Structures are given as C-alpha cells and as structure tokens.
C-alpha cells in the first residue's frame, strides 16, 4: 500500500504542473480515502456521517483537533512503529499521530527531498539557534527538540548558538563562523527563538556576525511576533542587517503531516510540494474558496497511510494566491499563513471558575 | 484572610464593610416588603426604558418579568397555602450568597429578585470577566439604587467581583445562610467543596441539557400561520444564546411513525433554515469549526449521520438512533440538533436522566404529558411550549425558589 514512486521519480519536489499534479494527487488521495475507510473504523464513521453533506466538494477533511481526542489509526497495534505527539505546552491535550515503518520512512524521505532542494545534497555545517539541553532529555521531549533533531540530519558539526540561560554564546558562534569561513552554512531555529534570543539581542547590542552565504530555515508560527508587530519582511531585513543572511526560508508544517512541509520561496510565498496540496475553505459553508480569498487552511498529503491524516482541516487562516505561476518559478500552489483562527466566545451557562483558573 | 481583592460593583458606594454587611442580621426585611416591591418596579422601568437594551431581547424579557403585574401574580403563586398560613409565618433566611454564571448574564437577576422579595440580604459575586451585558446590568442596578436613595434595599444588596481566590470564596461561604450556585458543573463542584454553616442551604444549578419534542402529525397539520409561529419560536429558543443556555433545546425528538416523521422533518428543517438565515445568530468561523468537530465526535460515538438540510453550517442536524439523542458531554450548541424519533412518549424514558432539564413541546396535549410524567420519568425539570424555553420560572430545576429562599416558622 501507498507506493509513492511516481512522486519520487520527479526531478524535484516541485516538478508537477497543475493538471498532471491534481490527477496524480487526487487519484492517490482517493485511494487513501478508501484505505482508511477500510482500516480505521472511527474514520469510516465520520466519512459515513458526512457522505450526504456536500462539504469540501464531497471529500472528507478531518479537523486536526480530532487527533487530540482520539487515537485514529489504520494499522494494527503490532505495526505501530512510533507515536508522534505535539508540543502541548499551551493546551492540555496533545495530538497523537500513529506511524508504521512505511509512513515514517515516507516522511523522512520526502523531508530529505524537500530540504535538499534548498540545502543541496551535501550536509552543511549547522548552527542551531537554541540551547543544547532542548534535545537532551528524551523523556520530556518537546516538539522543539523533535524538530531540531529531525532537521539535524541535514547538517554536520552541529553547534548551538545559545546557552541554557538563553544567552548567545558569542565565543562559540564566532569559533563556528571562523571554522567554516567562506563555506555555506545551514542555520535552523524556531521563528520566535531566532527573533527573540538571536536577532534582537544582536541588534540591541549593535553586534554584527558574518553569516553571509548561509541559509536560514525557521518555523513555528508567527503569533508571538505578530503581537509585537514583526512580520516576515522585518524578520528578513534584520537577518540581513545583523548577520548578512540573504537566504531565509520559513516553513509551514504540523505534527499531523510530518514530511510534506511547505517551504517559503525567495519571493516570500509558501509552496506546496508535489506530495502535498493546500486549499482554503470557507468555515461557514465548508466549501473550497477561490484563489485570493482568506479562509481556513486545508492540507492534503500523500504520505499518511498508518493514520487518516491525508486530508486535514487546520485551525490556521491563510490565502492561496495561485498555482504554478509564482515568480520564483516553482510549480505548486503558493500561499501565506495569517495566523490562528480567532477563538469563539464562550456563551451559555458556562464555568466561570474553570475559565478563570485556566486563563 | 484578606478581602481587599474584592471590588464593589453595586451600589457604587457602601458605608459598611463587607464583613459587617455579611454578619449583621438585624436589618432583614420581610417577604414582599414595600421597599423590595418599589425597587423591583423601578428596575423594570429602567430596563424597559433604556434604549441600549433594545438590541438585547433577554434584557427586555427580564424587564417584563419584573413588571408590577407579573410580580403580583408571582406573589399570589408563592403565597403560603391557606391550610398552612394559620400556623406558619414566612421569614427570610438571612444572607444569600449568589455565585452568578459568567455568561447568560441576566439569569442571576431572576433569583436575586426572588431573594430580595423574600427579604434576604444578598451578596452577589459576578465573574471577573466583564462583558458588555454585565456592564449594562450593573448600570441599571446602580441607576435604580440611586433613584431610590431612601429605600432600605440598598442595605440588602452588594454586588461584587474578585479574581479566583480560595480564601475569599471560603470566607464568604462561611458567612451565608443560603448559597445560590449558578454555573457549570465545575463551578458548582468547586463551591460545594467550601463549607457553609451547618444551618445554611445550597441551591445548585449545574449543567443541564434540554430538548424539543414535536408531534409529527401536528407539524404536518399546522396551517401557515401556526407553522411560521412554531418555526420562529423554535429559532428564538435555540439561537438566542447560540444554543448554549441550559434550557435551549439541543435535540429534537419527533413523536410519530417513521413515514410521517420523515415528512414532518422535511417540512420543518427547511423552514428553520430560512428563518435562521435572517436571525442575527452571531456565529463566526471558530463556531463552525466547533460544529465540524462535534459532527465527527458524534459520528464516532453514535454513528449518527449529518442530514443535508442546509447548504451552510448555520443550521446542523444530525440523524441519530435514540441512544445518541442526548449528548451531555460534547454537544457544542451553536445551532446543532440531534434528531431522532419515538412512536410513544414512554420510549423517551430510556435516554432521560437527571441532567435533562427542559422539554419544549409542540402538538402534544397537556393531558398526554401529565399522564406520561405521572407514570414516572427519570429526568426533566420543566415542560413548556416551544418558544418558552428561555423563560424563567420561579420553580427552576425542580426547586421552588420562593420556599428555598425563605423559611417557615410554625406556631401552634
């Protein structure tokens, strides 16, 4: 089940043009619909309930929240290879994503294909904008730790820029820069960490680092930055001003669809790779919206066969601007993420006390 | 113990300390005192006169409920029966500590007014999360108190707020003679864990679930005017607080045989759908997301199926077996209905329990309902015609508030 050779055989992860891609992708996703209906009873019940709905153009998109409430899996317990969990730092419940060997292998392979597109096939010296203990304690492994470990396979000579007290260790960073002078370097960190503990500190102290020629990859959401009025263009400008970094790639991804991530192109748009697709949905009608309109982000991926996560409705807002015609030249839909869906007001005979304790 | 975190909301100023207010019992009024009646009447006038309330039907409803004529009617209903009056005198309990719900902002006023009418002193704790409605209510309370500077009622009422604080809640609980707990199960459970005096009583209004019962035959037989009225009444019962008031029906049970139920359902929902599309329901994207999640949860739990009654998610109907009709755990409200059918009333008993409060009905006679209840029903607190789901009654959740907030002193 789930042979992805057709996709793997493409020259790059952004090869397929709309007509060919949609044909191959939908065929594959439809096969996954049937597969999960057959192997996941809970998914079958949801699909059966929605059969007459006409939502999402007659397809079933699971709200990502369901993975926090139910263990949705399409493999037997014997075939479970590992279970991914989301960070769960702010919310009480965490997502549980069940992987078998095949899905895990597809995730790694696709992530490699996508990252190599930006980093090349050689492993680059890697500067991690975080502190080393974030990956040390494997028992209380955070999503941040997992992300760093996952991306670490694309680098060598891993060097952590921060100490445990979140201060920049300038000595270590300078030594790293000198050691790899004149060679491309891979920098990775979570968006907020990179901003708060690296760029902003350098900026405030008037320090400048020579990281020209390096590639910065970052992810993790803009919410905290938008609150302090920092958008992508400000972020990039400060990357250039403080470190001379010219190539900055944000990416959008989630634990519910590891592997087929959406990486930002030089023109500032996130791109769907051949393995995945993105649609914008109007919450009130659960219908797909035309390009240019803002709505809920729905993501599809051909990777998940061990859990029914191939078509998901996120709680993020975004806009798709077009397909195959981005100025960067890559194929696929390109889009922006605007942030989280604003919360609904709690009404009714609700729990005053509970609500106050939580907040 | 520190009470300094308590903020006074009404009256705007108070000469006495909170402790003094709570400890003194020598200034209690008597049931239906002239002072209380005058205050309630003033409150009613303010509510019905204030233009800001025109947009809040629940405020207008409160204003009408507080009118002199209605209060007189209530006083009659609440009167001590003549068989008892010769040897019993009704007196207030003392200090009533009200813990108001965070969001159906008006409901605590009803029980507060009943308590004032019984002559009690009242300490009201409002949620520290302020809302526009809460502000309006405080404004009206304060206006009424200011308009009656000599009315002793101002010595019988303190409305306060404080951030969550075990110490304060424990102290206030220890001072009262009756505690009125509105809110969800968690709030009620939390306050219940704080002791009251051995002589004090708790009146608890926890989470409740409500449903509508419609006679399929009657819905099919209804003429245009009657049918339109039914649909409007159903919509205002269910969409006013985004279906999240305890007494808003969340399920619709049809009474009738399958074939006529199908016909009635096919007549009913499209009409509800078009009424809802004109109703200022205020649902936003996050609400629709909640609904999608609930549709999935209910399908997982009960194998229910979404009924294609609507092209958008403002109205959502799930067909379910009777067993899935009442979902007290996950139901998200926001215009979501679990739909099932019975051919006789007694079949409904299988899914009723003490957490089920209101049954709104259409096309079923009072005699039928009486007979059904008298044979014994495991749930339900009130049965009202469709359209009266959100009306307040002095008997709430099976509790007669007039008698619970007073005491009878017997004399032989």
General description of the model:
The complex is a heterodimer of chains A (359) and B (412). With 359 residues, chain A is an alpha/beta fold. Chain A has a single domain, classed as Rossmann fold. Chain A has helices spanning 5-8, 18-39, 41-49, 66-69, 101-119, 143-152, 170-179, 191-205, 223-227, 232-243, 352-358, and strands at residues 62-63, 82-85, 96-99, 124-128, 155-160, 186-190, 215-219, 247-252, 262-264, 270-271, 276-282, 287-288, 294-301, 311-323, 333-340. In chain A, the strands form 2 sheets. In chain A, strands 1, 4, 5, 6, 7, 8, 9, 10, 11, 12, 13, 14 and 15 form a 13-stranded mixed sheet that branches. In chain A, strands 2-3 form a two-stranded antiparallel ribbon. In chain A, strand 6 (186-190), helix 8 and strand 7 form a beta-alpha-beta unit. The radius of gyration of chain A is 21 Å and the shape is globular. Chain A starts with a helix and ends with a helix. The longest helix of chain B is centred in the middle third of the chain and has 20 residues, at 258-277. Chain B has 412 residues and is of the alpha/beta class. In chain B, 46% of the residues are buried. Chain B has 15 helices and 17 strands. Chains A and B meet through helix 3, strand 1 and helix 11 of A and helix 9, helix 13 and strand 10 of B.
């Amino acid at each position: 089940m789930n042979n992805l050779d057709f996709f793997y055989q493409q020259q790059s992860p952004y090869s397929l043009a709309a007509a060919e891609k949609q044909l191959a992708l939908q065929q594959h996703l439809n096969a996954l619909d049937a597969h999960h209906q057959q192997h996941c009873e809970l998914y079958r019940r949801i699909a059966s309930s929605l059969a007459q709905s006409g939502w999402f153009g007659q397809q079933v998109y699971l709200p990502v929240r369901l993975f926090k409430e139910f263990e949705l899996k399409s493999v037997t317990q014997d075939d479970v290879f590992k279970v991914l969990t989301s960070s769960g730092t702010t919310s009480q419940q965490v997502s549980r994503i069940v992987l078998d060997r095949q899905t895990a292998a597809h995730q790694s392979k696709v992530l490699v294909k996508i990252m190599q597109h930006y980093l090349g096939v050689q492993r680059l010296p890697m500067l991690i904008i975080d502190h080393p203990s974030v990956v040390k304690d494997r028992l209380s492994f955070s999503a941040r730790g997992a992300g760093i470990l996952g991306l670490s396979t694309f680098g060598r000579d891993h060097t952590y820029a921060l100490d445990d007290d979140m201060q920049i260790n300038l000595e270590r960073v300078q030594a790293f820069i000198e050691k790899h002078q004149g060679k491309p370097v891979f920098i990775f960190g979570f968006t907020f960490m990179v901003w708060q503990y690296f760029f902003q500190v350098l900026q405030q102290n008037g320090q400048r680092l020579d990281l020209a020629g390096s590639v910065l990859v970052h992810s993790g959401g803009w919410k905290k930055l938008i609150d302090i009025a920092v958008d992508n263009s400000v972020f990039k400008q400060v990357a250039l001003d403080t470190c001379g970094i010219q190539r900055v790639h944000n990416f959008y991804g989630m634990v519910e669809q590891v592997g087929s991530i959406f990486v930002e192109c030089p023109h500032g748009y996130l791109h769907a790779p051949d393995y995945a697709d993105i649609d914008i949905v109007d919450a009130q009608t659960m219908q797909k919206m035309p390009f240019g309109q803002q709505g809920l982000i729905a993501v599809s991926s051909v990777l998940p066969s061990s859990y029914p996560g191939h078509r998901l409705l996120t709680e993020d807002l975004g806009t798709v601007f077009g397909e195959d015609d981005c100025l960067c030249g890559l194929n696929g839909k390109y889009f922006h993420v605007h942030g989280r869906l604003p919360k609904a007001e709690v009404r009714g005979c609700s729990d005053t006390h509970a609500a106050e304790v939580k907040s | 113990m520190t009470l300094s975190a308590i903020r006074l909301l009404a009256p705007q100023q108070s000469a006495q300390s909170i402790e003094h207010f709570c400890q003194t019992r020598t200034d209690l009024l008597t049931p239906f005192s002239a002072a209380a009646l005058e205050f309630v009447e003033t409150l009613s006038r303010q509510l019905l006169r204030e233009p800001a309330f025109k947009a809040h039907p629940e405020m207008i409803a409160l204003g009408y409920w507080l009118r002199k004529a209605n209060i007189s009617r209530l006083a009659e209903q609440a009167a001590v029966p003549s068989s008892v009056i010769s040897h019993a005198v009704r007196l207030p309990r003392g200090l009533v500590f009200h813990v108001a719900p965070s969001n159906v902002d008006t409901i605590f006023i009803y029980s507060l007014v009943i308590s004032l009418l019984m002559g009690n002193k009242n300490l009201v704790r409002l949620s520290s999360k302020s809302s526009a409605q809460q502000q309006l209510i405080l404004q009206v309370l304060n206006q009424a108190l200011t308009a009656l500077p000599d009315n002793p009622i101002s010595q019988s009422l303190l409305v306060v707020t404080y951030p969550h604080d075990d110490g304060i809640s424990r102290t206030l609980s220890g001072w009262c003679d009756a505690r009125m707990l509105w809110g969800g199960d968690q709030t009620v459970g939390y306050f219940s864990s704080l002791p009251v005096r051995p002589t004090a009583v708790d009146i608890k209004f926890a989470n409740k679930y409500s449903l509508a019962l419609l006679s399929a035959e009657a819905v099919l037989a209804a003429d245009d005017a009657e049918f339109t009225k039914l649909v409007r009444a159903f919509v205002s019962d269910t969409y006013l607080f985004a279906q999240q008031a305890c007494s808003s029906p969340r399920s619709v049970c049809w009474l009738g045989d399958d074939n006529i139920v199908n016909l009635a359902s096919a007549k009913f929902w499209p009409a509800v759908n078009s009424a809802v599309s004109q109703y200022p329901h205020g649902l936003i994207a996050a609400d629709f997301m909640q609904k999608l999640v609930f549709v999935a949860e209910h399908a997982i739990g009960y194998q229910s199926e979404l009924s294609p009654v609507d092209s958008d998610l403002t109205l959502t109907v799930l067909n379910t077996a009777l067993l899935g009709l009442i979902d007290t755990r996950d139901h998200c409200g926001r215009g979501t209905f679990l739909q099932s059918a019975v051919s006789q009333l007694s079949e409904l008993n299988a899914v009723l329990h003490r957490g089920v409060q209101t049954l709104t009905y259409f096309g079923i006679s009072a005699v039928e309902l009486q007979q059904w209840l008298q044979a014994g029903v495991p749930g339900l607190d009130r049965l009202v015609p469709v359209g009266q789901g959100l009306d307040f009654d002095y008997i709430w959740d099976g509790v007669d508030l007039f008698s619970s907030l007073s005491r009878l002193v017997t004399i032989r």
